[in-house]
Backbone:
């Protein structure tokens, strides 16, 4: 890594950190467009965050320090993950061989503390959400790891920025079907982990039907700002893995590449908004089927890339 | 080596002195526990020292037994396990003081300290033994002292049952697996000295090697808890006193892993089928272990099943190394064995911590039933923090130590996927997927346990909560610090692990350098972990600096979604929390569920019952042992209860032995064997022979 590149990471990280609320806005605008409404202003998520940070928090008497630590640790885990995932360029700040394992476990750390904070309130609604979150999280781990395996085999690397980097470009030409399956699996993982339709519906006000939103019912003030921002950041990070795997950019630094990535992420947000407008949430006992389907897709992709390798 | 001998001497003194003073003051508890703690510290220091040097230190001495010599040796592998034994022993000794201090002086409390000293000494003997007889003496001493410790609360039926299950399981394993393995080696080398075992069987003798390996997996796997030999763990661990559970789950079951690793260091490269076989057993152990753990309501029973799961992970790592050895891939061997050893240490630390913490819950509330507990974090904050650290570590979450070992194992598996031919890569890919599933399920189990026991509000009002004694907290803090230390010093761990792998150096066809270089990758995640901690602190500071950030807007009740009268019994229970996963895997674990049926216009009160019966217990052991019991009923006529008749039986047996000896003389060869052995003893190739010390501690 050259010194110039190291310096360039600073503006890049700033853009990456500023981007997530905007993507949420894109999803909201898309859904509003499908519904024939105008939708909230583009900058509404930023206003919301600013408002929440200014407020003070109300706590339940049942809660302990874990309730307050939960959002901080979850957001810290996601911000650390942001140093491992290439978002705008083709490389990451702190990537190393095997960083996919750390990435998966950082997501798990965030999940653990979100769930513990939810359970700390003693509310049965939040317990229900926590139970769903860990269940679907556990089930989507194999799908995520098998998708990583496919890209590791294709690029002969265990570093995320190389696995979803330019080396994937020739792979699309020779093992297109496998890559399509992987992208499908990654999309399901994204929808599960980021709690979007058809796994979870972030828009309803019926606590019984939600997963993520019901877990954070009791959070307020700056902690709720952390959670809201964390959810958007998680969507951005997992989304960029998906976007990078689906559309690998060629080697070398290109001025056009970062703006293009922003547009691609915007496109992904539009796609997610369109899915949310076009279909309803699955019944909860159908969700494991969806995730198992994603696992099977990645498993088939593994077989495809491995078979090609022997030839 | 000096440290080891000193530790054995201290333990012998502790066992004797605390036994003799048992009835005089305080049950002699103080003497025995201090001895155990000092011996633990000596083991840690001695183990760490030995890991720094490359030479194997041996001593040998004559002893009054007709078989074998008192040979002890400390090489890298022994040193690593000494470290493990020492760490958990220290934590458990400190903790035991508070645990037993309030107990009455009469009763079996006086027996506790001598038995614990004996058990630790026996484990030290097992890992330092360089002679089959010494090993077996240590092995049996360990099993027997553990048996008495498990049955410590012998007024409890469950405790007696658990102790007997353990005794039968461990002896079946020893008789059917461990003894035949050693018999094969002794027969081949005509000596009981272990240093001649390496390469005793050549790579060309495939059948013998495979049979020995399979016997080893059965024998040592019973001690370790591989499925389906695991049934004694959930029976014995929950009923033992908690510091004993910590020692058993932390170190005693690891002796099985030690035996397996030692055996592998003697055997040549095995056929690939062996590695695949062990891999299948390990994956099954891991998945089933964690699924059964999820279904448990008793906190210590859950931890016992989680130990089964972790043994599965260790077994998986060993099988990765085996496959790497068969395929001449030293990198896989390094990651597999290195990951296995690291996980042995880590699991000892965090499972010891979790068992101690569970014991504190039992001590404070008098119940281990999760569904009756809740909200303990506010009443016993130190214990809650200890359990949280243990949970985060066991779920392999960064930045604690569990992540270090699982990272090594994952890296080994993914390296296999990337660099091996397709068929093996497919095997490794499925391992990665299953290991990921195990990791996800572990998070379900431990988020459930921690939150149901420590968070929310107490579910059963009739449970009263006492405070945890300071010494119990101190024991837990020690192990928690161990978890943090291993994670932050993973750079220093790499050379230590490489030193521990020296017995495999020759057989693995790789150099020590490869090990260090490959394992050095493990420390690559330190910068991101640093970022994680810095960012967390930064966010905390940011939160404090907000205009109203430090102020609390108000304290209220939990938002009940509009319901005005929420009650603590309406909280989500552990069973409901776990039900979604259990229901998804219902075809594998077959939970039995009795749902209440609604009868009539005014249905009466009813209960919903879910039972998770262990399949191995129900389908294998119960039918087999019931059948055996029926068979042996026919021998009842021999049991008269008259001592004269029994004396006649003994005389008859002795006569038969003499007659057999007189006719066919099966033991004649043995005498010659003894003669050659004493001749060979004078020319032992010892690196360093220290003064002759009789292993007095082993006879206590």
Residues:
């Amino acid at each position: 890594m050259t010194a110039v590149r190291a310096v360039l990471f600073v503006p890049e990280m700033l853009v990456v950190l500023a981007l997530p609320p905007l993507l949420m806005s894109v999803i909201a605008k898309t859904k509003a467009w499908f519904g024939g409404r105008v939708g909230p202003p583009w900058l509404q998520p930023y206003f919301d965050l600013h408002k929440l940070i200014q407020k003070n928090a109300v706590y339940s008497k049942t809660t302990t320090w874990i309730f307050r630590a939960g959002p901080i640790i979850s957001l810290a885990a996601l911000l650390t993950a942001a140093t491992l995932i290439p978002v705008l360029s083709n490389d990451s700040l702190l990537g190393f061989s095997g960083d996919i394992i750390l990435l998966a476990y950082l997501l798990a750390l965030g999940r653990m503390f979100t769930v513990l904070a939810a359970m700390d309130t003693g509310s049965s609604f939040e317990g229900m959400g926590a139970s769903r979150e860990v269940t679907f999280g556990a089930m989507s781990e194999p799908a995520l790891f098998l998708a990583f395996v496919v890209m590791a085999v294709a690029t002969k690397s265990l570093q995320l920025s190389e696995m979803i980097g330019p080396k994937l470009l020739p792979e699309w030409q020779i093992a297109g079907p496998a890559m399509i399956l992987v992208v499908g699996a990654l999309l399901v993982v994204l929808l599960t982990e980021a709690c979007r339709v058809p796994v979870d519906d972030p828009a309803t006000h019926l606590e019984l039907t939600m997963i993520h939103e019901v877990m954070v019912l009791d959070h307020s003030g700056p902690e709720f700002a952390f959670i809201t921002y964390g959810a958007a950041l998680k969507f951005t990070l997992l989304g960029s893995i998906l976007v990078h795997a689906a559309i690998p950019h060629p080697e070398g630094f290109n001025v056009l590449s970062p703006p293009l990535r922003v547009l691609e992420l915007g496109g992904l947000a539009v796609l997610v908004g369109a899915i949310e407008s076009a279909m309803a949430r699955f019944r909860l006992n159908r969700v494991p089927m969806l995730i198992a389907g994603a696992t099977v897709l990645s498993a088939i992709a593994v077989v495809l890339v491995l078979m090609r390798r022997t030839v | 080596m000096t440290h080891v001998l000193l530790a054995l001497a201290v333990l012998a003194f502790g066992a004797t002195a605390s036994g003799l003073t048992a009835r005089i003051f305080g049950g002699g508890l103080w003497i025995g526990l201090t001895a155990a703690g000092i011996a633990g510290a000596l083991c840690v220091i001695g183990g760490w020292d030995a890991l720094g040097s490359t030479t194997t230190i041996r001593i040998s001495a004559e002893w009054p037994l007709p078989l074998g010599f008192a040979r002890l040796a400390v090489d890298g592998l022994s040193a690593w396990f000494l470290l493990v034994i020492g760490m958990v022993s220290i934590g458990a000794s400190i903790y035991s003081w508070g645990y037993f201090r309030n107990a009455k002086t009469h009763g079996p409390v006086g027996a506790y300290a001598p038995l614990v000293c004996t058990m630790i000494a026996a484990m030290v003997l097992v890992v330092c033994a360089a002679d089959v007889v010494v090993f077996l003496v240590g092995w049996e001493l360990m099993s027997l002292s553990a048996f008495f410790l498990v049955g410590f609360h012998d007024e409890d039926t469950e405790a007696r049952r658990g102790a007997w299950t353990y005794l039968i399981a461990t002896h079946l394993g020893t008789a059917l697996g461990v003894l035949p393995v050693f018999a094969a080696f002794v027969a081949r080398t005509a000596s009981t000295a272990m240093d001649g075992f390496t390469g005793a069987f050549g790579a060309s003798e495939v059948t013998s090697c495979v049979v020995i390996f399979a016997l080893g997996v059965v024998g040592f796997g019973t001690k370790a808890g591989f499925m389906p030999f695991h049934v004694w763990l959930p029976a014995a661990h929950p009923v033992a006193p908690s510091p004993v559970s910590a020692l058993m789950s932390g170190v005693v079951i690891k002796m099985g892993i030690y035996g397996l690793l030692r055996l592998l260091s003697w055997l040549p490269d095995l056929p690939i089928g062996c590695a695949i076989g062990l891999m299948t057993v390990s994956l099954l152990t891991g998945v089933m272990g964690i699924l059964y753990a999820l279904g448990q309501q008793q906190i210590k029973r859950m931890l016992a099943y989680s130990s089964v799961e972790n043994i599965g992970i260790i077994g998986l790592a060993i099988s990765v190394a085996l496959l790497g050895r068969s395929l001449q891939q030293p990198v896989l061997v390094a990651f597999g064995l290195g990951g296995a050893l690291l996980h042995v240490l880590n699991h000892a630390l965090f499972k010891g911590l979790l068992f101690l913490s569970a014991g504190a819950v039992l001590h404070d509330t008098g119940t281990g039933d999760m569904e009756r507990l809740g909200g303990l974090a506010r009443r016993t904050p130190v214990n809650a923090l200890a359990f949280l650290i243990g949970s985060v570590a066991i779920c392999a979450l960064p930045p604690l130590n569990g992540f270090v070992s699982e990272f090594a194992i994952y890296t080994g598996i993914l390296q296999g996927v990337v660099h091996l031919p397709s068929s093996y890569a497919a095997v490794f890919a499925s391992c990665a997927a299953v290991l990921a599933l195990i990791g996800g399920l572990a998070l379900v189990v431990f988020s459930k346990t921690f939150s149901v026991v420590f968070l929310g509000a107490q579910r059963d009002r009739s449970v009263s909560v006492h405070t945890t004694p300071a010494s119990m907290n101190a024991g837990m803090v020690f192990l928690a610090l161990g978890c943090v230390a291993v994670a932050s010093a993973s750079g220093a761990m790499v050379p230590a692990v490489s030193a521990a792998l020296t017995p495999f150096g020759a057989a693995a066809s790789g150099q020590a350098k490869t090990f260090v270089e490959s394992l050095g990758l493990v420390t690559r995640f330190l910068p991101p972990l640093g970022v994680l901690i810095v960012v967390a602190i930064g966010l905390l500071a940011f939160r404090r600096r907000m205009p109203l950030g430090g102020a609390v807007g108000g304290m209220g009740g939990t938002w009940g979604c509009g319901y005005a009268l929420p009650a603590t019994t309406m909280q989500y229970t552990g069973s409901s929390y776990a039900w979604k996963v259990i229901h998804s895997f219902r075809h594998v674990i077959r939970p039995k569920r009795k749902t209440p049926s609604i009868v009539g216009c005014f249905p009466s009160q009813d209960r919903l019952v879910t039972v998770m019966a262990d399949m191995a217990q129900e389908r294998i052991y119960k039918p087999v042992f019931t059948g055996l019991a029926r068979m042996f009923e026919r021998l009842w006529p021999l049991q008269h209860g008259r001592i004269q008749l029994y004396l006649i039986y003994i005389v008859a047996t002795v006569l038969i032995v003499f007659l057999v000896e007189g006719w066919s003389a099966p033991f004649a060869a043995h005498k010659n064997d003894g003669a050659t052995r004493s001749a060979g003893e004078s020319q032992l190739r010892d690196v360093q022979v220290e003064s002759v010390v009789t292993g007095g501690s082993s006879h206590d």
About this structure: Residues 670-700 of chain B have pLDDT under 50 and may be disordered. DSSP finds 26 helices and five strands in chain B.
